[in-house]
Amino acid sequence: MNRLFLFMKRNIIEGIIQGNERGFAFLIPDNPEFEDFFISHGDLKGAMHKDRVLAEATYGKGERTTARVLKILERGLSEVVGTYFSSKHGGFVISDDKHYSTDVFIPFGKGLKAKSGDKVVCKIISYPHRKNPEGIIKEVLGRQFNRETEVKSILRTYNLEDKFSSKLLSATELYGAPTQKDFVDRKDYRDYLTFTIDGEDSRDFDDAVSIVKNEDGTYSLGVHIADVSHYVKSGDIVDYEALKRGTSVYFPQNVIPMLPERLCNDLCSLKENEDRLTLSCMVLLSEHGEVIKSQVYKSVINSKARLTYNKVQKMLDGDQEIISQYQSVYQSVLIMNELTDLLIEKRKKNGYIDLEVKESAITVDNKGNISVSVMPRDKAHKIIEEFMILANVCVAKKMSDLNIPCIYRIHERPEDEKFRYFLTFLNGVGVNFSFNDELTTKDYQKILGLAEGNPAYNVINRVMLRSMQKAKYSEQLKGHFGLGEKYYCHFTSPIRRYPDLFVHRVLKDYIAYGEDYVYKKYGSIAQSVAKNSSEKERNAMEAERAVDDYYKMLYISDFVGDEFEGVISGVTNFGIFVELENGIEGLVRIENIKGKRFDCDSTNYVLSDGSVRYKLGQKVKIKVVGVNLGERRAEFLLVK
Questions:
Q1: Conformational region of residue 130, where left means phi above 0, alpha means psi within -120 to 50, and beta covers everything else
Q2: HSE-up of 30 (CA within 13 Å, CB side)?
Q3: Do 257 and 264 touch, CB atoms closer than 8 A?
Q4: pLDDT for position 5
Q5: What residue ranges in 515-628 does DSSP mark as E strands?
Q6: Residue 345: what are its φ and ψ, rounded to 5°?
Q7: How far does the chain reach from its first CA to its final CA, in angstroms?
């Protein structure tokens, strides 16, 4: 008897689990063409955050793509950082990383004398079937809620190393200050009026600028970047550590640098009145701000002044005392200001998306007192931002035209699903927008224009940012959606970003040895360096956000009982989020809102009981009633 068997084609996916504190997870597929898959707690089959798994797509109801774990291929975490609690059966560790939602059981005798409430590092030793993972305490970091301990635990959670080995530091001591022999094959710009513009407390100055307005109305701009690659050679011990770190990480009270202090604060810092080795991007621009030509040279400069953003802004505002103090560079500052206006106007025409996303500036004084304010977006900051963007664009185009390996900074077009969600959100807050053609940056510009004057304007900016894909590094040229640029790379910060150092090396070796040499040396590694750099950047940003949130909660904890004006920044079925002027956000729980039974209209972002309505962008007054330092969350009550 003949039998016919019909088999459904199974879609098997390999990828990494991204956990969630509520027990479910997402599968991040290795194949970038696949979207993320939702996995319910029951379909995880014991898989945890960062585990590599084989899963099968199940395609649940609605538009959500779902999957179930078939096999755990490799455990992702060998250590967990968290808070230890003792129990009659031994003890357990609750991870600080909310993606890791499972407690780790610590048997008797394996707790390293940790006490309840201690922050610890726990090594996982086994995964018993249908039980919590078991571990041992390998290090006690300190007491929970101690500021130093909390920051230390965040560093350990994100595997950030804040010290360099003695062997590496010894290697950097062999580096010497540049001498005349180092200048032989370089353009000499030491007689140029170059200067740096940085923050008040900056210690490393990796970029300097020079500018001249020519008689025919054109502009000659120089963007001079520290030549880190002169010291850090490909494959040496310092390079290996820099690649492993990928980026510097910035916290309110300290920095974890990519490179040792000998380099970032000394030899590669473009200090005032000292000869320094650089790579200079020299750009000739028309009277309308259009690039006529650009070139990159190995160079040497001598910075004539160390300016700060505050001082430059005061010059632009007409502060005569500062103008008099910096008379030698004042005219250059005015020319820079003039050129910046042209560049901004030109980029807006190209589709540049000028988002106004409120960022918090967190400062800590010598006594440990914390202040939180809005990050300034003044003209002085925009001048340097525009010049750095211009140099990055010119270098990326040059490398593309030369057809040599490059690590580009790419920002791909938003995914359709996220943009549809964004359109629904816009309709809900009273911004009606529709388009027929392929989505472009100019569509986003139009949305911002339509949203001006809307009470939810700041929130619209933030949700717009979330609707876009995250920028990342790639060896392929794919353009930068947010900037409206076809060509873009990172060239201007080799002290703190590894991709910039890679780009410097390729350019210098191309100048010295030609196309074949750089392809042979860098072509095969560009992809892996780009992937590593993207991963390290994401990790650093998450760590920075975690520390910033902790400091914000420390700050607002001093204001429990005080009242503030704020704006509703989120509407959910469990309450509303309110953002204060300085960017600190807190939750007003639905059970604490006076009125009848409130319902959440998730389409229009409104919480209403029929007579009282709370909507996105609405101004409210709140009282700070509590702070959960462990959750890094503030609790508010509505006053009116």
A1: left
A2: 9
A3: yes
A4: 42
A5: 563-572, 575-580, 585-589, 599-601, 606-608, 613-615, 619-628
A6: -65, -40
A7: 79
The CB density around residue 600, as the number of other CB atoms within 10 Å, is 18
**According to the model, what pLDDT value does residue 187 have?**
98
* Cα–Cα distance, 42 to 22 (Å, whole number): 12
Torsion, CA 452, CA 454, CA 458, CA 460, rounded to 10: -90
Q: List alpha helices for 177-279, DSSP H.
A: 237-245, 261-262
Question: What structural domains and CATH numbers belong to the chain?
Answer: 12-74 (2.40.50.140), 79-157 (2.40.50.700), 166-410+477-548 (no CATH), 416-468 (no CATH), 560-638 (2.40.50.140)
- pLDDT, mean of residues 79-91: 93
Q: Is 201's pLDDT higher than 90? A: no
Each residue's pLDDT tens digit, 436-469: 777 889 899 999 999 998 888 888 998 999 899 9
Report the C-alpha gap between 95 and 371 in whole angstroms. 29
The span from the CA of 522 to the CA of 235, in Å, is: 12
Nearest to 121 by CA among 104, 107, 109, 133: 104
- DSSP secondary structure letters along 486-545: S--B--S-TTTBHHHHHHHHHHHHHHHH-HHHHHHHHTTTHHHHHHHHHHHHHHHHHHHH
- Model confidence band, residue 7 (pLDDT cutoffs 50, 70, 90): very low
The tokens of 309 are what?
A: 């953003």
Range in 32-36, 131-135, 186-190 the model is least confident about: 32-36
Using the 8-state DSSP alphabet, how is residue 423 labeled?
Answer: H
Distance CA 196, CA 326 (A): 13
pTM: 0.91
Mean pLDDT for the stretch of residues 335-350? 94
Do 194 and 188 touch, CB atoms closer than 8 A? no
Helix 147-157 vs helix 526-556: angle between axes, to the nearest 10 degrees? 160
Plot region of 136 (φ>0 → left; ψ -120 to 50 → alpha; else → beta) = beta
CA angle in degrees (0–180, nearest 5) for 157-159-161 = 125
Task: Report whether pLDDT(207) > 70.
Answer: yes
